[in-house]
Amino acid sequence: MSTMTEKAGYSIGAGVSCADGDCGRLHRIIMDPATQTLTHLVVGRDPHTARLVPVSLVGSAGVEAIILSCTGSGFDLLEPAEATEMVQPAVPAGGPVTGGGTLGGAYRAPAKPDMVSYDRVPAGEIQLRRNERLHAADGDIGHIKGLLAAPDHHVTHILLAEGHLWSRKEVAVPIRNVVDATYGVQVDLTRGELKDLPAVDLTRVG
Prior knowledge:
Layout: E1 8-11, E2 15-18, E3 21-32, E4 37-44, E5 51-54, E6 58-61, E7 65-68, H1 72-76, E8 82-87, E9 114-119, E10 126-129, E11 133-136, E12 139-149, E13 155-161, E14 170-174, E15 178-180, E16 185-187, H2 191-195
Parallel strand pairs: 2-7, 11-16
Antiparallel strand pairs: 1-12, 2-3, 3-4, 3-10, 4-5, 6-7, 8-9, 11-12, 12-13, 13-14, 15-16
């Protein structure tokens, strides 16, 4: 069994560097809930220009900094983490209004299509964002900070940021206690049980 010092820490908001320089920050984390493995990091200078980084490109990961094995030019070739689509407006019941002029009908200019942006997440996978709520069995408590993963990228813990109930900075919730992570993270522990989990010194992780 690996120890905390053998795990990699992925803190959302941490700085990320390519092999030849800075490439932004960690904005989101993507994992496969079926296998409980980390699959991608969403990295960039801002969320709108961020890239989907396969976890195989992570050279080293710590809570404060992540280093990728690719160069900056290789990073720029990765898939965008945000997609934009043109959405046509719905046609009013009865069809568009046409006609007009001397025939007395009404004319309505067609509505312009909307541009909609959304996060790209591979099919069957889920994402974690910073400050998403952690839902205990008896109510919400705390916010998500990131996760810990073993060398094989298996997620071992979800990191819970400090809240008003904590006398310590971070708590690591075992992945076995996570029952759902579709909208925030739902665990089968009560708030009291979460409070009793041992504190984690993230400076000793990685």
